[in-house]
Design brief:
0% of the residues lie in helices and 50% in strands. It is mainly beta and 291 residues long. It has a single domain, classed as TolB, C-terminal domain (Neuraminidase, 6 Propeller), CATH 2.120.10.30. The chain has a 5-stranded mixed beta sheet, with no helix packed on it. The radius of gyration is 17 Å and the shape is globular. The N and C termini lie far apart (43 Å). A divalent metal cation binds at residues 23, 153, 203. The active site is at residue 203. Substrate binds at residues 104, 106.
Length: 291
């Protein structure tokens, strides 16, 4: 097995204001806008092409967001999955799959089937394996597709939409499923890799046009570019101690945006932020919520 290539990219800051837990960056290719969340603030952040930053306060902790086919967002709040209109400020509850379990919705993305795939994370102390992964529909339907999780994370799809990646950042594994992009059915789960703390607990993920999976190593200050077989091919060393999720964007989808969370891991306090760098790999536009 060949040793991974070490890369130190030319990173630039994207956001000046500090974040608590920056997460869920989503690039809107139609407007050239980057959306993201600050989980515990709680808030949705919008970074416009000219650099203007808008903040939309949320009524409860927000784990992730996705783009809708109209102007709205789909947002995963502690109180359930909602549609949010940034223009009017209105919320519409679709469903609350977690209910009374001591968990909240965490990492989520719109899939090729137009549904919002979102997992929960345990808020028990110590954490338990009561979290789950859900498929949530624009009609308010909810289906549990995986259980026994601690902190569901890392959702992404292959370029043809026929493979879904998923991680658990506490149990430190990355897995893949066969995926039906029409029906949203999963099959043939396979465990691709278990990570050490030094390799980076697998937080948020993204895939590029060539089918490689990019995993934010939140415990190691790095991004891991991983083959479909689960081999780490490249390690991108970042100037942030705790990266949480990568997202492809920019006019040619060759810019990688990375969110991070606040930490004292380096021995001094470091606020969460958003950084970006350009690279040869190309991403794909996000899917949109709705049939």
């Amino acid at each position: 097995m060949t040793a991974p290539r070490i890369v130190r990219p030319q990173v630039r800051p994207v956001l000046q204001q500090p974040l608590g837990v920056g997460e869920s960056p989503v690039w809107d290719e139609k407007s050239g806008t980057l959306w993201l969340v600050d989980i515990q603030a709680p808030a949705v952040i919008r970074i416009l092409p000219q650099g203007k930053v808008d903040r939309f306060d949320m009524p409860s902790a927000i784990g992730s967001l996705g783009l809708c086919r109209d102007r709205r967002l789909v947002v995963a709040l502690r109180t359930g999955l909602h549609l949010f209109d940034p223009v009017s400020g209105d919320f519409e509850l679709l469903c609350d799959p977690v209910g009374r379990v001591n968990c909240r919705l965490n990492d989520g993305k719109v899939g090729p089937d137009g549904h919002f795939w979102v997992g929960s994370m345990s808020e028990a102390k110590p954490q338990t394996n009561d979290a789950a992964l859900y498929r949530l529909g624009p009609d308010g339907s909810a289906r549990t597709v995986a259980t026994g999780l601690t902190s569901s994370n890392g959702l992404a799809w292959s370029p043809d939409g026929r493979r879904m990646y998923h991680s658990d950042s506490r149990q430190c594994f990355l897995q893949a499923f066969d995926f039906d992009p029409e029906e949203g059915e999963l099959a043939n789960a396979s465990r691709l890799r278990v990570f050490s703390e030094e390799e980076g607990r697998p937080d948020g993920g993204a895939t590029d046009r060539d089918g490689y999976y990019w995993s934010a190593g939140v415990s190691a200050g790095r991004l891991n570019r991983i083959s479909p077989a689960g081999e780490i091919l490249e390690i991108y060393i970042l100037p942030v101690a705790a990266p949480t999720m990568p997202c492809f964007g920019g006019p040619d989808m060759r810019t990688l945006f990375v969110t991070s969370l606040s930490t004292k891991r380096s021995g001094r306090f470091e606020a969460g932020t958003v950084v970006a760098f350009d690279l040869d790999a190309e991403g794909l536009p996000p899917f949109r919520f709705g049939n």
